[in-house]
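dumping this here before i forget
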Amino acid sequence: MQSWSETPVPVVPGSGPPLRLYDTADRQVRPVTPGPIATMYVCGITPYDATHLGHAATYLAFDLVNRVLRDAGHEVHYVQNVTDVDDPLFERAERDGEDWMVLGMRETALFREDMEALRVLPPRDYIGAVESVNEVVEFVEKLIAARAAYVVDDPEFPDVYFRADATEQFGYESGYDRATMERLFAERGGDPDRPGKRDPIDALIWRAARPGEPSWPSPFGPGRPGWHIECAAIALNRIGTGFDVQGGGSDLIYPHHEYSAAHAEAVVAGRRFARHYVHTGMIGLDGEKMSKSRGNLVFVSKLRAQLVDPAAIRLGLLAGHYRTDRAWTDEVLKTAQERLQRWRAAAAVETGPAPADAIARLRQHLADDLDTPKAIDAIDDWTYRALEYGGSDPAAPGQIVDAVDALLGIRLI
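structure:
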């Protein structure tokens, strides 16, 4: 699957402190310690609707991870999937009377446009579920051979399920108790009442063909991949197990990330799927959580159609810490637009205050679990001094422009 266009990243002299991120499994902020090539997998969209601000906030957070790692001298191997075969896609296509593949391709194309407009650095590998079906089939075979999965006794629909008890450490990522797991499993796409399952929270890894649904051949009968195994297979086949960062929204902690990790760990025994599990907070609108059911989603493409500068959208989302649930309001956007205007005015001065302290603070705060509010304050302080008091350094505005571009992904000129 085609990714979007690469965004040039300026090289900023010097370097900042090593990156530290909150790890969901360990419940603490700790150092990210990659080798020369940092590896990151971030779960992508199910393309049945346009990119809303909740999506955008997640991909912006991991774009900052990408940028901070690059600034520290690492090459970054970034992988992202597209769940372009799944129930929500089929349901939306049926509702609207269109082909599910056409819907998926259109919304994926719009997502790429939104990411490019927001200046999100593209993944090296951008992989659709459809193109990874053979990888999933091979993976399911390995899980069955390892007795980590089984076929339900159902002649009509012989679905394949992963055993939740296949790994001793299952549950370490979320830390949820059994009651919470059962509740969230049912709420987030699980099928606890499916007859023939050995445990209500065993997860589907191969869905046997149903009438009217696409299917692919396999040794266990025609069907299609389950959700969690798709990400496990794509990640394992491109960056292996024990990669540096797995990312997504906090709603993916369980069941999606818990199971994708368990799938991989059941095949590669004793290895933790990712060294860091990193999750972003939810974005709300005017005091309520954004959701399709409430009909209160704010779409990036619609804001762009209203001629809202994507840099202001980016700045508005970065004004809050990535791990916090936070609201998007007209005031958030207005503040971001005014801030962007000030920053651009300061970037246009002929001489400015010495930039070294502001750039050092920018790096320091981003390295400290992506503390974007404090990072933004550092640029606000330099901007205030540049506009109110001026300065004598002709190179300062350009150095600030490059640092803000490289580290925050915001173009000022």
